[in-house]
Amino acid sequence: ERRVGVQSVESQSMERQSVRAGEGPSRVAQASDHEGAGNLQRSRGTPSVRQVPCHKGLRAQSDPLEVIQKNLGEAEIRIFNGCQYRSVESVREITEFAKSIPGFMNLDLNDQVTLLKYGVYEVIFAMLASQMNKDGFLVAYGAAFITREFLRGLRRPFCTILEPKFEFAIRFNALALDDADIALYIAAIILCGDRPGLVQVGPVEHIQERVLQAMDKHLRGNHPDRPFLFPTLLQKLSDLRQLVTEHAQIVNTIRKAEAHTNLPPLLQEIFRDMY
């Protein structure tokens, strides 16, 4: 870990990413056909807190408050755009993960796309919890840490984007799930048979039932002293849906108000069809 200032956090979050959206009727369906996506992995351990120091290089002839406000404004846009580009990578990774679920590739192609469109952000926020603690979250693949205090200091509505995710993450992390638990949970999220627009609901529900049975059996063996863990995780599914709905509303508000924000085409398609 290293101490990071606001400007270094901004550059870390951008990740020098180049987004190339897929062509054709659905970019979600083709997301994994682009650059090879890595396996879903979760950073483990509790990150320590690094405070964000003040901006450097303020000119003597300038009003320091005006300079700081200008730099923070740039930080807000860069952090927002950086998060969107990282989300595109996550969609590709989740698509690859979904393909590995037994039976998923046998589903109707339109249903595969629908399940991914409605499930990817729920999966992203479930996975994001592992990068968070009550004080902040890891970025740049664990190379930097942005404090929650810094995020709360951003102007509205940027300051409201991640706060609900912190609250969810604190509760979710208290369940102390391991990687196998999370993998089964993600599969259950993706294979929800009540997604709008499914063509063939029966096959989806059949696969989901098998995944839920496997998850229940695994949790009983992995956490024998916690018999209520399985129903608790099922209840979290509704929390994730609410989280995604609120997130979409905030993103749409920012896009309308901020000319320099950028939502990649892949994410535009997801939000357009869902909300």
Give an overview in words.
InterPro entries: NHR-like_dom_sf, Nucl_hrmn_rcpt_lig-bd, Nuclear_hormone_rcpt_NR1, Nuclear_hrmn_rcpt, ThyrH_rcpt. Keywords: DNA-binding, Metal-binding, Nucleus, Receptor, Transcription, Transcription regulation, Zinc, Zinc-finger. Residues 1-52 are annotated as: Disordered. GO terms for molecular function: DNA-binding transcription repressor activity, RNA polymerase II-specific; nuclear receptor activity; RNA polymerase II cis-regulatory region sequence-specific DNA binding; zinc ion binding. Residues 40-49 have a biased composition (Polar residues). A hairpin with a 4-residue loop joins strand 2 (136-139) and strand 3. Helix content is 57%, strand content 4%. The two termini are 38 Å apart. The chain is mainly α. The chain has one domain: Retinoid X Receptor (Orthogonal Bundle). It has a three-stranded antiparallel beta sheet with strand order 1-2-3. The relative contact order is 0.15. It is globular and about 50 Å long. Helix 1 (6-14) runs parallel beside helix 3, helix 3 packs across helix 4 and helix 4 packs across helix 9.
Fold blueprint:
Layout: H1 6-14, H2 27-30, H3 64-99, H4 109-128, E1 132-133, E2 136-139, E3 144-147, H5 148-152, H6 163-173, H7 179-190, H8 201-222, H9 229-257, H10 265-274
Antiparallel strand pairs: 1-2, 2-3
Helix pairs in contact: 1-3, 3-4, 4-7, 4-9, 6-9, 7-8
Biased composition (Polar residues): 40-49
InterPro entries: NHR-like_dom_sf, Nucl_hrmn_rcpt_lig-bd, Nuclear_hormone_rcpt_NR1, Nuclear_hrmn_rcpt, ThyrH_rcpt
Family: Belongs to the nuclear hormone receptor family. NR1 subfamily.
